[in-house]
Amino acid sequence: MQRSCLSGPPHRSFNLDNPTSENTVISLRGSNTMDNLAPAITPPRGVGGTKISHQGVLDWVQEVARRTQPENIFWCDGSARENSYLLEVAQHQGILQKLNEKKVPGSYLHRSNPNDVARVEQFTLICTRTKEEAGPTNNWADPAETYLKLNEMLKGAMEGRTMFVIPYIMGPPDSPLAKVGFEITDSIYVVLSMRIMTRMGEVAVKRLEGSSNGEWNRGVHSLLDVHPDRRLICHFPQDNAIISVGSGYGGNVLLSKKCLALRIGSYLARQQGWLAEHMLILGVESPEGRKHYVAAAFPSACGKTNFAMLIPPEHYKGWKITTIGDDIAWMQIGADGRLYAVNPENGYFGVVPGTSYKSNPNAMKSIERDTLYTNVAQTDDHDVWWEGKDGPAPAHAIDWRGKEWTPESKEKAAHPNSRFAVPMRNNPVLDPDVEKGEGVPISAIIFGGRRSDTMPLVFQAIDWERGVYAGATMASETTAAATGAVGQVRRDPMAMLPFCGYHMGQYFKHWLKIGPRIQNPPLIFHVNWFRKGADGKFLWPGFGDNMRVLKWVIDRCEGRGGATESPVGFIPRPADLDTQGLANVPEETLAELLSIKPGEWKKELQGQQEFFETLGADLPPELTAQHKKLAERFAS
Ligand code: OXD
Ligand code: MN
Fold this sequence. Notes:
Blueprint: E1 25-27, H1 55-68, E2 72-75, H2 80-92, E3 97-98, E4 108-110, E5 124-126, H3 131-134, E6 139-140, H4 143-154, E7 162-170, E8 179-185, H5 188-197, E9 199-200, H6 202-209, E10 216-222, E11 232-236, E12 241-245, H7 250-253, H8 256-272, E13 275-277, E14 279-285, E15 291-297, H9 304-308, E16 320-325, E17 329-333, E18 339-342, E19 347-351, H10 361-366, E20 372-374, E21 377-379, E22 384-385, E23 397-398, E24 404-405, E25 419-423, E26 440-448, E27 458-460, H11 464-472, E28 475-477, E29 489-491, H12 504-514, E30 523-527, H13 546-557, E31 564-566, E32 569-571, H14 587-593, H15 598-614, H16 621-635
Parallel strand pairs: 2-7, 4-20, 5-6, 5-11, 8-10, 10-12, 15-26, 26-30
Antiparallel strand pairs: 1-2, 3-4, 7-8, 7-9, 11-12, 13-17, 14-15, 14-16, 17-18, 18-26, 19-25, 20-25, 21-22, 21-23, 23-24, 27-30, 28-29, 31-32
Helix pairs in contact: 2-5, 11-16, 15-16
The protein binds oxalic acid and manganese (II) ion (MN).
């Protein structure tokens, strides 16, 4: 790789002050140099070229270009033409493979570096001014030192390569909550994914130029050499900035998603009086046309996408479930005193293995076209395959690492955290109000973890404070969405442990403060689809049958639905749940699913206490008091 220009500014002058669609790609050097990651590209005239005159953005792009020394700068406009061009280039450079046009039209496969397949929580840093602000659940680093370190790592990092500038907007463009971001990246895969996951191009520039507060997020991403030792995902909440290096995995590099919409988002939300949450949002419409919206927080890879697209059992004639979002909710108090939610994203980045016509027909329909797959297996006829897909396994495939695979192979064909990125427009049950700027009114909030024991199928918190307690003490068994051991119970409050951009104790305070301001607050519930029997088998069938629990939730919101009061909250009695046609769940199993076992709860209370102790003085006293009362209720 040529490294001749490390020490000085780019030797070709470039006019960033007034880029036009004619100079979409601003050449910084004479000729292309080859780089084994992704050599620079020179697109034909007319491809790309968002016009921007915002001096702050232009200065920042120039500063990053000086440091990273790219061959040229490509201003993305998000157009279909640009997308087709980049898809061509990505295939040519071996970054993507076109899939069978008949079987999965418009779809592509990407294989990531095998060392880079999940979020890396240990290398995800929150660089607030003080360690105290980040709190004990985050990895903190000093912002000044981290900038210095990253700037050093970024020196010349894009030499010989193209630097893409992606303007994007999170949230419906006319939403008061919408946020503008710019991501600089040297990865075509990131550009193609961001076009699916965000609203990209001129729409963002327009919003920024018309905005009164001038707020925008600066995101810099460079693959570097995709080495785990040089992988860092750094957030600077006080600067509204993100720098991510050394990874190409979605959760680490699509800076709009976990980094902006959750970590920076939660920080801004506390300052500005709203909520940024790791929640799906779904609509439930009864045959009589009564509609409710529900937001639900589950940790990564616990079925948020499945729940958001649920198909009810057959006897729910006339009931409709629609999706607003499958991963992130931004919520604020509306003029009528209810809590309103928007989905900041424009697409779904879901876990593939286990997705089938049985588990999630709507997801299957969504991903049968225009899908960017990462780390699934490829069949001999260039179709995709993964563990848990309908039908028999192929006799032969190429696995996620690019190696030969047969059903006899010991390795998985698809990586357990392999993903699809797909536009939300592909979802056959997309809610018609998904673009509504004011959002949709939330009737219920559901928290839920993956727990083999202790947690009943469902309970309702008695009030907002006890609901916050239920969310704050949530725990779940770890999954493949992050590197590290899978299947260990860890506290994951409100499914935000890896995504809260500030002190978790302060985050709970924010929740406690916002509740009383909502005149008509959503009811709060806790669910557990994953309880197991003595034989280690799941007691609840899950998937479409979760509608039965959702129906009880809606009944409670409408002032119906029977329940009994337990120490943890209201619990349905077996007869309060709809069991019509429920196969393989005999009465004793249902009773077991709804049971509260004091012995298990003794351990649970201990675990909750231990977690609370880690939060120190920032833990709100209301939660300490709730813990005490819960213990007392069990004691009596
Ligand atoms: C995700 C995650 O990708 O939570 O949504 O890891
Ligand atoms: Mn998620």
